[in-house]
Amino acid sequence: MSIAEKKKAKFEQKTATYEVKIHPQTARLYHIEISKTAIAKFLETVEQDHQSVQHLEYTPYARHIVASYLLDQVGDEFGELIRSIVHDRESGGFTLGLEGVTENTDEYVIFATAISHILGIPNHDSMSGKYYARFSVKDTDSSDSYLRQAYRLFTLHTDGTFVDEPTDWLLMMKMVEQNARGGESRLLHLDDWKELDKFVKHPLANHKFTYKAPKSKNVDQEIDRLTFFNYNNEPGICYIDQFVNPETIEEAKYLRDLSNSMENDESVIELELPIGDLVVVNNIFWLHGRAAFEKNPNLNRELLRQRGRFSQNVQ
Fold this sequence. Notes:
Blueprint: H1 3-10, E1 13-14, E2 18-22, E3 30-34, H2 36-48, H3 53-58, H4 60-74, H5 77-87, E4 93-97, H6 105-119, E5 120-122, E6 133-138, E7 154-157, E8 169-178, E9 185-189, H7 196-200, E10 208-212, E11 222-226, E12 228-231, E13 234-237, E14 244-245, H8 249-263, E15 269-271, E16 277-282, E17 286-290, E18 300-310
Parallel strand pairs: 3-4
Antiparallel strand pairs: 1-2, 2-3, 4-16, 5-18, 6-18, 7-17, 8-16, 8-18, 9-15, 9-17, 10-11, 10-14, 12-13
Helix pairs in contact: 2-4, 4-6
């Protein structure tokens, strides 16, 4: 049975307020369409309750309240559904959006906050000092990481490598895009990587590498992490090439070869994500990155990022 056939039996469904389909670009992901009526009613309730982005930033419980407003429109089973998808090893990810109901980026933040707090609890983002980060990619950049550098490959990695808190899932939402060609989100499911066994069985797979964040991340700690670990009796991965600090030539070659193998794997997906849509993936067995943009002096893309842990009541 193919991946698509297995997944159809699990989660593909249609209700009065949303539809879950296999993603048109890859059988690994789902695409969820929430009805425009449900989205409009959600945003109307948010407005009536005077929920603003600032209020969400200042008042943590308000983030759970907007999550409840979305569930009021789509049903409590929607929460179980998206958590189950992100937990599911055969998939572990989905896309969804606001279906053109609004182009207000504050409402994008509120909607993404509802989704993240249905999933679990977002981590504090030290780069922004908030529970989420908004950042732009433009023609010129002087940052100390590849995150904002438009014209080079942002290599495949997992988030949360240099912090000592769980980072179970990642949410990325496209807020603004102007004069952009290229820059697709690149994704690789660990089980689709052809050379996974080669690197999992290497002696250095059990070595703890030291991770150090650059100054822009506002994280001073160093942390030692395994590259591969057991996750529900399957491999999990923790890796980013920019912030890992090997101590020997042998270690450096292992990391270089690992990264090159992933980047050149034929199963890497270049995901098309419209403005106002978001993608959620399990950070334990999905790697993500970004293709290079084509040169344009007027390039402007803004993204929102949230990442965090599952709630304790999630099975």
